[in-house]
Fold these 3 entries.
Entry 1:
Amino acid sequence: MAFGFTVLKKDAGTRARLGKLVTPHGEVQTPVFMPVGTQATVKTMAPEDLKALGAGGAGIILSNTYHLYLRPGHELIAKMGGLHRFMSWDRPILTDSGGYQVFSHSQLRKITEEGVKFQSHLDGSYHFLTPERATGIQEALGADIIMCFDECPPYPSTYDYLKESMEMTLRWARRCKDSKKREDQALFGIIQGGMHKDLRVESAGRTVEIGFDGYAIGGLSVGETKPLMYEATEYTAEAMPEDRPRYLMGVGTPEDLVECACLGVDMFDCVMPTRNARTGTLFTSFGKMNIKNAKFSEDSSPADPECTCYACRNFSRAYLRHLYSAGEILGMRLNTIHNLHYYLTLMDDIRKAIREDRLTSFRREFYHKREVDQ
């Protein structure tokens, strides 16, 4: 089945769109949140757990090229039948190119026109990643959607540096497209430019000229303020094609998902729900909850009375607090089930609101619940 994207409906009061992604491993309704399975696993979750979550389960997940290249190696994964078979996941997968991981390990890397030389954070060994290499690794992994290799500049950066970085990202994007061999994978280009509207708009236009199956907004959620992030998302999304999926990389909080869906973003990913679950923070209809808090030690109510996840149907706040305090793995697992269920249900609610032309009122009610004392 070839890759495709269709805008099914636009919200009457915002720029939000209801869409459908078609991939070789199934269809995905958008706007969508992609749980992050960095090392071929969404931490603490089995594939069947992901499918059993709210709103039909996770429709698509993300894995990471950088980490899988270092361990266990893309050649081994290809030998084992590809990433889907390796991790026993039969729904769509998106792999990022490793560009962000290179950025986040800045003390271990050196960027040149040809590519990036970096040291493994695992054993200190040296590696060289080029646009062609990143594309080839992702082709070996066999994801449904693969990403161009880009430079993710730090925040803040000078205008001159951001422009040079954008130019190199564009050259690398062309090299990724030219080196791509598999026709059963969609390739997304990445738009950079920091917090400068002129650079973002130029990056979007020139990336579209190269021509990709979808387009991503990169280089956000790297330390800038929320107003700056939303502003950059808005003018970048406006410069992106109507008939291609728009992916905002590495974002974010439930508030981010609501705001940026309203700005026309179709795809999101973030480690926030899973990482916070492991540190005892739960996302609920009324805001964040720190399950470590002593006030929950005798609380027999579920984490979120409005939630229908397995954890909330069967366990109390007191039990979840006990598990966390005792360092029990089940606590991390239940918290992760809850947080991902919340995120996927939130996206389903956003899709329903778009379908019914009431996203503006949904957004208002979403924030109203967070203002009520619990």
Entry 2:
Amino acid sequence: MIVAVQPDHYLLMNRALASLTPLFPVAVLALSSPAWAGNPVRLAYEAPEGCPAQPDFVAAVAARGGDFDGKGSAGAQRVMVVAIRRDDHGFAGAFQVREEESASNKREVHGQSCGEVVDALAVVTAIALRSDSTDLAATAAPVADVAPSAPPTAYPLEGNAPVVPPTPERLRGHTQFLPPRTQRVEVGPGTLRFDRVQSVTASVGAVVGPISSLVMPRYDLSFLTANFVTTPEGSQRIDGMIVDVRVSLLGPSTYRSMGTTTALTGGSLGMNICASPLYDTRGLVLLFCAEYGGGFMNMITKGADGSQIQSKTSGYATAMFAGNIQYNLGSSFLIGVKVGGGLNLGSLTAERADGSRIFGSSTGVAWSAYGLLGIGLHF
């Protein structure tokens, strides 16, 4: 079938096309403009074997409202880099937003299982994807470490609010044996947390040395404190040295010699300055201590007939080294073993009626050693 076009209709069509031709480039530019269509956000995901794969991570992000296929920021394409690795305490993960030559601050999370770390990173990634801000520092919401005993989804998550970790049930760290006078530690933005750990221990044992060949019972009550610092990245360390203060009771004991008996009782105070290669508030604690202190000894000497020959009280100083092993049982109780040895500085002597010496060092220096078993509370 042939359709005839009237000349006047043909002229009208030509004129309409001619009037629209200048608009074609404008339409093409508008459709291709970043303001019309944003660039999708790309994901770079890396995790060790046994961790959730990239599709699982994308699904976890989607379950929290994040969409990698949606429109991203105008201009250059943004890449969200998620990397997970194993470490000494379980797993560690890092999140960063990159765009051309700029990048946000790298945020890290820690957990005992890879699933905990993946969940926390999925939360942060979803928050960054939902954000309309083009400020890269704002797109990476601050993240603190994941407490192993609580799932990350228990944290309050509203908009771009920072993820605030709960107070950890477990603190682990160590001291430096020769700490520098000044130390600088680089930390990321977030919350720097300080925790003071304390324990009270009652111990019983024996001490030998101050009085030659005499083993004396010893009863201790000690108070220990350590200061922990936790960085926003979840790294924990002990600030300074650990201090252990004790009060001790000695005796009662009896020293018997030919024709005399000497009853001895005493007490002492001491302060231990300790370094710890391992301090776990829910496990093993190792302490190596230098102790400085002093005390007194009351000595009453009687003859074979029961008459009192001498009564005196002498003071002495101590300088010792000690090793202390504790194990924290749950959140409150502990058991421990402590051994130490060193020097007693002071004259602990007893004399007969004729002035001859029953026991004691003429130099005023005697070695001493002790061993104790204890039970206590930590908080």
Entry 3:
Amino acid sequence: MIALAAIDLDTQLLPDDITLLLLWAGLALNINATFAPLASAVIGAMAGYLSLWAVYWAFKLATGKEGMGYGDFKLLAAIGAWLGWTALPLVILLSSLVGAAVGIALIVFKRHGRENPIPFGPYLAAAGLIAMFWGGQIARRWLPLFT
């Protein structure tokens, strides 16, 4: 994840060699439910990919521009394969909040123009790691506030 974040920051690419390896490794590790039941991992991989794919196409149809790359879809699919589909809402929320905050800060402090793309992979990677290590604690602490 650290390598993917660094590569994406540098090149705005998430290489298939790493993202697809992570996806298959997550599915393989979850054959025995290491991090999530296998069915949840498979659904997580599909839902991770398809959720960002849908956002991509909605944005493209609305604006005529590409808002993210296919590597982001694959990275979220890999995170879903490792953690299962139930972790995806937290990962998307965390990565979006941090990405938006950093993007706004970069624009406000004139270090980045609005027309310059900001890689989303580092925020997905960080959110995936946070969800892996502290996702259960975050959900137990904050979910009751919304029910």
